[in-house]
Batch of 4 targets.
Target 1
Amino acid sequence: MKPEERRRFVPFGYKLMLSYALCILVPVIIVGSFAVSTLVKSVREQAESSVQGTMRQIRDNIQYKIEDTRRLTNMIYVDTTLAKHLKHYEEGWVSYDATTSYLLPKMMQTIQSSSLRLWLSVYLHNETLPEVYYNHENIDPLMTVGKLYELYHMNRIENADWYKSFPPERYGTTMQWRQIEDDAKFGRLSLLRRIVDTTNGVELREIGFIRVTAHLQDLFESVDYTKVGEGSAIYIVGPQGDILYSSAADPNMTGKTWNESWTRNHLVLRQPLEGLEWSVVSLVPTAIMEKDADKVRMLTAIVCLISVLVIFFVGWMFSRFFSKRVTKIVSVLHAFREGEFRKRMAYEGRDEFAQIAAALNDMGQHTEGLIREVYLTNLQKKEAELESLQAQINPHFLYNTLSSISRLARFGDIDKLHRMVIGLAKFYRLTLNDGRTFIPLSKELEQVQAYVDIQSIKYGDRMEVLFDIQPEVNRYDTVKLIVQPFIENALQHAWCGDHIHIRISGEIIGGDIHLKIIDDGNGIPQDRFRKLFDPLDEVESGYGIRNVDQRIKLHFGKKYGVSLASRPGIGTAVLLRIPTYKHKKNQG
């Protein structure tokens, strides 16, 4: 296999495994992505639902305490007996008795009915009733006393802004939760409500005022950010965005104003408190929401990876199973390509591979027999052709030389005749070469020199032949009688005037031997030049050129042989290209 083909070659097993990989990975990726997307969405929804459930529970707990405090104020608001005592303006024992026998026990009963620490303050328009209160300047009585109740006269609050801005009375519904006076300082919240004369449902005349104060921590005890998750925060936010209460890692958020920038990278959940303008707002970091989602992704990835590995292993086993069979077939085909048709493939089975193996074995056996038969036939044919070509070239030269000897004998030139006969004997001694087809290049050139000596007798100083041979060339062998025919052609057809010069050179180029025969004769006409290698051409010069070219190609291959270049009036150059070849001396 050539290097370029080897780089492009991809084994069948790899292709089969690649197809398995595509068939495995694409569905796994699609199904895995869909599963991850669905599961992550479900986990997020579950996490959000869980947080929402926690938020609703927190809201309900707050709502319960708010409603419980409202219920306490209703015990005073709807008490007609209490209203009669508050409207009864009578000083002395009567007012004292009303206060001690009914008002104070009623207030005690009211705060004791709640589980919260409450501070009940009742403000009276009836100044005949005595004030009952503690001295708690700059202290928080809820912390020092616990549950307590007090009676004040209305003149203590009638000029307060919060009292003046209190909305008009609507029976049973007008009330406010506010931080007044020092509530913010001590972290308290107050429920404000009128006491009205319910005996006159039209006027609803104010006869007193209720203030129930509780600690924010008691009201919002259920607000705990750890119930939602680490890093979360829960706020009680008012209508203006003021944070009434906070449960967060940062304890200093109470009293600040809501900022939308806090919601970045957080899930925001709101639960409004019924009957109030407050909302319970939670900020949950998306990292907490994604924590379980990351676990789902990891678990899904592990399941997909294990599935891919298992299926890959099964696919690899199948690929290996089929690849072995294909490799056997390919190895047999490679052997056939290299000419080794004796190789057979043993294969058991009843599938298509078994049929291919049987067919290849039959084909190899049949081809081996045909090749043996054809090879022997072609070998005999080639030997016959070589002998025929060799036999043709020798008589051709002999005929020309004998013609020259005949002319010399006719003219009685005995000395030249003698020299030509001696030269002819030397030439044929080298040509016969003990019957060998191959000859050292040094002998081939010596043979050419013998031929030139013969022709110099005929042409004298009108012919000049120059040899320019690299010494390395003489180390190799060649087919005999490949240079002389071109010298003969030049002397027969290339004369241009009375003189002709012929140069014979030999050198090694690119690992091959290049022999050149160059003359300064009249060249070859273009129409004649195109027919030189035409086997149908019967001209003598073309026959000699084709003869040499065929013999070189038969022995050394098609890349070797004869090439010519010629220009009329300038001359002809012949290139003989042969390999650097050394023949075994004992072969013929």
Target 2
Amino acid sequence: MMARRGLGKGLDALLPSIDELDTDAQSGHVQEIAINQIDPNTDQPRKKFDQEKIKELAESIKQHGVVQPIIVKPNKERYMIVVGERRWRAARIAGLTHIPAIIRDISENEVVEIALIENLQREDLNPIEEAQGIKQLIEEYGLTQEEVAERIGWSRPAVSNSLRLLTLSEEIIKHIEDGLITPGHARALLSLRDHTLRDILVKNIIENDLSVREAENLAKRLEGEDKKQKGAANTAKPSYLIEIEENLEEYFGTRVTIKPGRKRGIIQIEYYSNEDLERIMDRMKR
């Protein structure tokens, strides 16, 4: 069995190896629990389950049974899944009434953290679910990006790039969730600060089935054309205002326009969704 990489504190003790499972079975730690006495974790980081894969797993369970026990925790007079919701779902489809399980008494916070780390390690999440899981580990558990990277076995830049996906518009995030564009395409989109240009690029990616390299090249062309248009529009604008605009655009990650007047002026910051507005407001509070 491959060694797990970057396990969080206590997680290696929670996720048993094959040898440990054999020992647990012999010592009676693995129990057969009624499936209808088990509830899924409502804070499960994976929001979408591939039903075809669940059905395939159900067929395997019909033939071979549940090879690896799920892990549950006591929850009043029932049990909550800590690890193994896919197996639990598949076992129900397969018609099983009971499922092998290991009972571990852990806190609610540990359940969520373990579920997040376990899913991130096993690459069971789509890119947006991964980013949301990382964000939750940072915001709710006080981990730094470096600590998250160490626990899930990723590089620090990979964690940072994952989080950047959440700065995209709701529409683009939905395209990523649906598999219409890849994280590679998303990086090309993130290279464009202007959200209008991002909309043009994502439309081309989907309609013309662009590769990541083609998307990157188109992003560069769009950026170049936009700079030319801005240059023409800014010929009468003082250079110091243009520099301030560029600095603000870099900070807020969106288009910023300064409209000077004789004694007063207007700073216009564009946003493209409610989530985008909240992101900008968060930046303002820093």
Target 3
Amino acid sequence: MSISLILLPVALGAVAKAAVAQSSPAPNVCTVSTRLRDARLLNLALQDTGARTTSAAPDAIDVEWAQMTAQLRRDAEGVWQAHFHGTEDRQRCVDTVLAIDAAYGLRVQAEVLRRVRDQAPAAGMSLVSQTANADRSVTMVLEVRE
């Protein structure tokens, strides 16, 4: 008997808040919210988008890209607010957060794949195959040992 898993590079819960742009009273600032749980994976995802982290704490990350900076702050509900400086272009802010979200989804996917591979033997399974698909999903086939 075998089990097939298809893992999509989507961070659950993140997309729901990612596209909410809010107006800011300050010029050259826009704010976007997103829900990403793992700060370590978020830092890696930020690097994947070309950002350089200038300051990091459990609930606060400051980053910079070429011609734009952002202050990310996590509230009590786990929602990150990204306050962008150096642009008034809301779409650019939303697109940046969506790029972070996509990179985060790929990081989550890689972490899940690693855990499945690591824990399969203890669960009585072995990895038969792993295929990366054109849509960035990954198909794993696990065989249940008898």
Target 4
Amino acid sequence: MEELFKKRKQDFQKLHRKYLPYVLNDHFVLVLVFLLGYVLYQYSQLLRHFPENHWPIIICLIFLTFFLLQVGSVATYLEEADRQFLLAKENQLITYIDRAGRHSFVSGTVIQSVCLALLFPIFARLGLSLTLFVLMLVLLAGLKWLIQKRKVAALMADSGLNWDASIVSEKRRKQQILKFYSLFVNVKGVSTSVKERSYLNPLLRTVEKKSGSHWLNLFARAFLRSSDYLGLYIRLTFLALLSLIFISNDYLSMALALIFDYLLLFQLLSLYHHFDYHYLSILYPEDSKQKKADLLKLLRGLSLVLLIIEIGFTGNFINAVIMTIFFGVMAYLYLPYKLKNIID
């Protein structure tokens, strides 16, 4: 059994090695380098001109600490079929999950301690001595241990292992990682959930219901009802707005916002294959040109909504013009080009 889970872990690590080059491509690394330089500069400016009102900084540190305490999920590598084939090994599995919980605690504590150590100059400006800071790290490590014990206990039942909770927890953990990679490249194995969201039905009524626009109707419904596309649209739009609102440097805020917009529109191209495994869409006589045109029509509409939302936060007329040009290039040059490559 040890060899089985060791192999599963190695297979998942191979998946990381497969997709990480797409994430850490030259352009993205260059953006991260500039962003890191900007963050370090702002950090030095904050320490140099420390505000007299400490409460906003204290509140931010509390939220950050709470977030870091949650970092670290238990990697069990359990699969659906294990409830049948490994039922006889349940006691060994419980021992294995306890060990996985300890490993998660160690890695999570290291991340937590390093992140807080980088912020020690801020704690020092707030009046915390090095001794008290180290004591705080120890107390937080103890609190994290209790949180990790609760996470492991949630995977157990009174009579042994809670198979349902353990398998669902592992699926959720893997899906979170795959969905992160899916922001940069098409990823196999990303599952979706569908909700009706009847409160969004008025938006669907704006799409004409006629034979020539059936793909537009399908794509619009997939976008609004699938948990992936709408959630992705909201999250990346929110991040773009945060960049425009809270980063004082106009050029950097604009660059970050456009990067988030690019990632969003690039990822929405996967809508083209959303119905590939639906039997009725296979039986329906497909017109690839109409399908492509309908998807582009939807993406251009979503791009226009993005532009309208973000243009009010650009700060000046020149940035608004740059953003308008960017969305025009994306909607009428880049997206048709990428979609042609996807189809071919």
